[in-house]
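Dissemination and training. As part of the outreach component of the grant, students in the summer workshop were shown how a complex can be specified as a set of sequence lines and then modelled as a single object. The example used during the hands-on session is reproduced here so that future cohorts can follow it. Participants entered these lines:
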Amino acid sequence: MSSEVIKQLQEAVQFSPENVPLRLHLAQVLLQDFQYQQAEEQYRKVLELSHDNIAAQLGLARTFYHQQKYSVAIVVLEQLEHQEPDNFDALLLHCRILVKENSMEGARDIYQHLLQLNPGFRDEALDGYFRAPQQQYNPASDEDGEDIEKIFTLEKPEINFNDVGGMEREKQEIDLKIIKPLQFPDLYKAYGKKAGGGILLYGPPGCGKTYLARATAGQIQAEFINVGIHDVLDMWIGNSEKNLHSLFELARESKPCVLFFDEVDALGANRTSMRNSGASHLINQFLSEMDGIAANNENVLIIGATNAPWSLDPAFRRPGRFDRIIFVAPPDQEGREEILKIQLRNKPVDSIDYRAIAKATPGYSGADLKAIVDLAIEDKLMEALQKGIPQPITQKDLLKATKLHRATTREWFNTARNYALYSNEAGLYDEVLKYLDIKK
Ligand SMILES: Nc1ncnc2c1ncn2[C@@H]1O[C@H](COP(=O)(O)OP(=O)(O)OP(=O)(O)O)[C@@H](O)[C@H]1O
Ligand SMILES: [Mg+2]
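and obtained this result:
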């Protein structure tokens, strides 16, 4: 909605302040434009002019709802329902508010009323709460269950911490923060530490977030489910809530299990712009599914990964959710040396000075190092095809490849530096500052 339209409407209203339909229209436009306070004001004025105006009452309740003023919203809705007991939109809003307030019994009654008025009525979020359980996910009979497993493959990773070069700090943190609590829940409880909750890995691309999550599952011989949030959002528009629920169910049934959410910021980004699209339900549901896992110590480890932690809604970082945050930095020289050794394991090599190559590759990510090795191997393959004799990979080949493939992590730090310097709430990005050697 252009601000020009709003301005013109405001002028028109000033010109004829008693014109109820005009003012109502302005209020509606403001509401659609997320200007809840202004919309509230206009709806109130309409009601001053026209006491029983149903549209204005409903609109006013909506502005309250969006401002999370739930109890006043309910007062307005009750008055409306007194006049029009079967007003579908009012009942629907009422039902949603009661769910938000956790008044499930009242919400259920209204939900039944909605179904009476319209038996074909479907609402993913509300259905999730109130439909009979057999109509939800049931792996034995439900087709959706099968779909879920088709979309998300369960895998038992063959890599473990031994396959992860360097990253000693990250491995240790994961061990202390999620593996040990899983193995010794009673001990942790005795010291007042709760097991469960999730960890969030963040850092520049290619530095091993996904790889480390997979190795974590391998380390404890757990199943690994890899979920790309963009896939969830794209594939399931309209049906996401139900699928999200099925996904968490799948994880519960496959425990021990590492449930890995990649690009998790996509879910938490731009919450305001999502408000009207139904995606905010998805976020709320995601959070409550997470809370459920955390509360029940379910042997499901939740790991999220992101390149853009600053886009993540802070609600994701509350206790029991992604409350442990780990910066996955580019590997240091020793780490690079180990990664190179891992990448060249079981490959034909001539005596290689790994240390020298590690020295020549500051800022290279694990993925960059892998790219170097791949380049060198391709080169050797071509040579072998031409000469008919297989040749081992040499120091020279690798150094040549470092000239062809440059480090890719710098750009990320350009962005991250700004967030670390200017919006480092609660020391969230202290590790980034430390890496960049910036003193606070
Ligand atoms: N510490 C490491 N040890 C061995 N290999 C590594 C390591 N870090 C990265 N790699 C290699 O680099 C590849 C890319 O890493 P990965 O996909 O985990 O990066 P990422 O941090 O998830 O990147 P993105 O942010 O782009 O998703 C891995 O598949 C692996 O082969
Ligand atoms: Mg990744």
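The beta strands are 154-155, 198-202, 223-228, 257-262, 300-306, 322-327. Students were then asked to discuss how this feature might be tested experimentally.
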